Amino acid sequence: MEQTIPSPNAGADERRERFNREPMRLAPDQSTAWHKLPKTGVSWAQAVALVQAADAHDGERRDVGLTKLSAYVVGPTADHTMALAHRDGVLPPTPLRETAFRQLCARIGAPSDYVAKLPGRIQAVLVDHGLRSSDIDGNLLRCAAGEARALLSDRYAALDNSLVIGTMAESLDKHGLLDSVKIVGLATGTSTVIRCILPTDSIVVPSGVKEDDLDHLVLGFDVGNGEIGNRAVSVIGSVYRPICENGLRNVYVSDAHKLRHIGDPARLAEAFMQAVPSALAAARGTRQKLNDSIDRMVTDALSEIDGLRQFGLSLTDTRDIARDVAASRGRALPDKSTAWTLGDFGPDPIRVWDVVNAATHIAQSRGVDARLDIEEAAGRYLDKRTK
User: Which DSSP string do the residues of 19-73 spell out, in sequence order?
Assistant: First the structure.
């Protein structure tokens, strides 16, 4: 791979023109999405099989230790994908996925959003200049299917899904939970999230549901991981409401619940042994607050919902929550939010319970990371409004 122009072969003129005119493309990251699971959940073993299948579909994993970045260049592959290669051929041209590109730019001090929009020729010049000027040593290139999925420091501890899942299974078994836990939520991809519940640890709440079904709040916890420097290993207490499949995450956790990808991976087993009971204890407290929220009335629904932005929600989120609260009462808000009035929500005051459940309900329509952010924001709101 040449530094600034494609290798000459059939169609070289067309590729050179494209290189001069268009940004080099980036390979997509591993697809991340929530799986559709049965409402009653699946076993731990079934969830593990789904995670393994998703990782296998993404391609064979391989880690490559890199020397100083100054020894590397970027350039286009035959299909105009940006690739990283060693100047002396030690590393063959390796297409960069989106995350690896952003991490490369961060390591050389280049603004990735800006560089991504430039013509390929200028991209190569700028990035190569940053690489040549870099004295950063000890780099780890994480690859899958022959593509670079991450560029990290070699201090990064590979707490990968296989290790996390296996270690958590051992912890659950020692706590006597492996056969009783059910998985009601599962995300795979760049972020892995396994939403576990204990069906036998459930309470009935007087939520006012009109159906004959009883409304339950089930104790649980989320196991999370990211393999490309995007997410710590985490065990976070959660509360699950089966009737609507809403999940609420407890966000006030100690450092024992989150483990950065640094240091000896062997510490994972001890951390999980401590984290599981601690997360369940935190979830039990959150569940009690959620139960208490049924009796906490809101006098000004519009101000209350708009105030959710202080917990990290966007304007779009708060408007969707308002519409969901109204819909749960059989009402529809006007299309323009400026026309909303308190009367649009009905004659009765809304409850903190209604706001929390609306937030966790609309979260289900979001992507993985956005969903978790909303569920955590709902947890912070609940904590403040039930003190």
Answer: HHHSPPB-BPPPP-EE----TT-B-HHHHHHHHHHHHHHH--EEEEEE--GGGEE
